[in-house]
Amino acid sequence: MKVYDGSQTEQSSTPERIKVGIAEYDVSTNGATLSTSGLGSCIGVGLHDEESSVSGLVHVMLPVSEEVNGGNPAKFADTGVKTLVRELEDHGADRSNIVAKIAGGSDMLDFSKNGSGIGVRNANVVEETLSALDIPIVGEDIGGDHGRSIRLEGDTGDLIVKSANRDSKRL
């Protein structure tokens, strides 16, 4: 018979949660859940390699970095996606196994409605960058006029998208 005397700690079956802020990224190799909120025109890019169980999430704000040296690569769609892919590879992922799921890119404050808002441009650059890296997008929830929060489950690669006044989606 096992007796709990207070010296033991209970193991939780709930995976660790890692919060990814705006213009930040993080990588999980232990099945942790990565989450970010405040996706309006920003894009959340979730990457997952099922073979190596490596996942990563980046929250990009702007389409293209104009800085040659320095700066925060996670702030921009082009450099943020490339940086995250390198980090996944550094943690054991194989690019040929990586798949992407993306969400965000709303034009909540675009009054011109001509399709050239920051959200649309962010989505286009994310898609172009992933294509250039030969990483397929297998799920997306892009555009519209509403904000989103996302959660990338590191053990499955599922991306759960929550939007105001809308049901959650599992990508």
Automatic annotation (TrEMBL):
Belongs to the CheD family. It comes from the Archaea. HAMAP family: CheD. It holds the Pfam family CheD. Its EC number is 3.5.1.44. GO terms for biological process: chemotaxis. Keywords: Chemotaxis, Hydrolase. Probably deamidates glutamine residues to glutamate on methyl-accepting chemotaxis receptors (MCPs), playing an important role in chemotaxis. It comes from Halorhabdus utahensis (strain DSM 12940 / JCM 11049 / AX-2). InterPro entries: CheD-like_sf, Chemorcpt_Glu_NH3ase_CheD, Cytotoxic_necrot_fac-like_cat. One of its GO terms (molecular function) is protein-glutamine glutaminase activity. This is Probable chemoreceptor glutamine deamidase CheD. It is an enzyme of class 3 (hydrolase). SUPFAM superfamilies: CNF1/YfiH-like putative cysteine hydrolases. CDD domains: CheD. It catalyses: L-glutaminyl-[protein] + H2O = L-glutamyl-[protein] + NH4(+).
